Amino acid sequence: MRIVIPGGTGQVGAILNRALTSAGHDVVVLTRRPVHEREVAWDGRTLGPWAKEIDGSDLVVNLAGRSVNCRYTPANLRAMMESRRQSTEVVGHAIATADRPPRVWLQMSTATIYAHRLDAPNDETTGVLGGTEPGVPAYWNRSVEIAKAWEAAQERAETPHTRKVALRSAMVMSPDHGGIFDVLLRLARFGLGGPVAGGAQYVSWIHDRDFVRAVEFLAGRDDLTGPVNLAAPGPLPQRDFMRLLREAWGVRVGLPATKWMAEIGAFALRTDTELLLKSRRVVPGRLLDAGFTFDHPDWAEAAGDLVRRARS
Predict the structure, then answer these.
(1) What is the dihedral of CA 194, 274, 169, 234, to 10 degrees?
(2) Which run of H or E residues covers position 79?
(3) Are 48 and 3 in contact (CB under 8 A)?
(4) Residue 106: pLDDT above 70?
(5) What is the model's pLDDT at position 178?
(6) What is the DSSP track for 114-175?
(7) pLDDT confidence of residue 267
(8) Phi-psi category of 170—alpha, beta or left, where left has phi over 0 and alpha has psi -120 to 50?
(9) CB of 163 within 8 A of CB of 225?
(10) CB 266 within 8 A of CB 203
């Protein structure tokens, strides 16, 4: 296939590009700062010469959007919203005006769209969307609003010849330097990976190779449209998630952190505690119903595989 990945230079884009290129597909990455071969310049806001890459392609996987790994200041939240909405709108415009539009448009979204909850998992049918749950910081709703606006921009695009899927992805775990697994493993290695604020909040995740397999699966299934959760079927409380990661590395002790300690740590790392404290209990209902099988459904096994790859 000829595949175009807008915003494909981040961690997830690198994973996808590497895997799809190795599988023999022709992959083009749209980026603001093209450096490598098969990278094409775009600004994520306006149509330009890059649009010809989409015309005649088979699959578009739009990953563009400002990283959420930052302090949730009004300016950063605004940048998150604008970068996601604008890039999705312009990709939709490029597809709508193409002489030979792609067959499939997979649009990145996020599992953060679901409510903070401990009582039951969120799937695409029975899941509760966030924004109304009591007892959580009011500013957490901004992440939900961003996620909803992201998906709405794809829904509004008039692309009758292109099937559209929104990828409500959990954290993609890979041993790549600088990714979320790399950060969590570093904490575990230094004995800092204990429960945060009690550790009851759920962590949803997906192994990088299952993420790639899910993208390929969705690209080939003409009957699937709309939101699809990309998450392993076994989310688990943060205290258990980190305990199993420590065991995979061989670390016995994980110092706990209170909420105020997490605030200090997040400030030092220039990130936000929502990423640590929100309970993301998400399961892949539609993927499982469609017959997708996970190679790494269990976190203990997945953590062991990722640790082995990290060590090597």
Answers:
(1) 40
(2) helix 74-96
(3) no
(4) yes
(5) 87
(6) B---SSS-B-TTTPPBSS--SSS-TTHHHHHHHHHHHHHHHHHS--TTSEEEEEEE-EEE--
(7) 67
(8) beta
(9) yes
(10) no
Q: Determine how many CB atoms are found less than 10 A away from the CB of residue 23.
A: 11
Closest by Cα among 297, 283, 143, 292 to 215: 292
Q: How confident is the model at residue 132 (pLDDT cuts 50, 70, 90)?
A: confident
Identity (one letter) of the amino acid at 174?
S
- Roughly how many angstroms between the first and final C-alpha of the chain, as a whole number? 31
The two counts, helices (H) then strands (E), for the chain are 11, 11
Domains of the chain with CATH codes? 2-311 (3.40.50.720)
Q: What letter represents residue 27's amino acid?
A: V
- Dihedral sign for Cα 182, 25, 301, 170, please: positive
Mean local confidence (pLDDT), 245-268: 85
What pTM did the predictor assign? 0.95
Q: Which of 149, 173, 18, 38 is nearest to 85 (CA)?
A: 149
Q: What are residue 257's DSSP bridge partners? A: 196
In the predicted model, what is the mean pLDDT of residues 22-42? 96
Residues 6+ apart with CB under 8 A from 290: 217, 221, 223, 224
DSSP state of 65: S
Pairing verdict, β 104-108 and 171-173: unpaired
d(CA 263, CA 72): 12
Confidence at residue 272, expressed as pLDDT on a 0 to 100 scale: 82
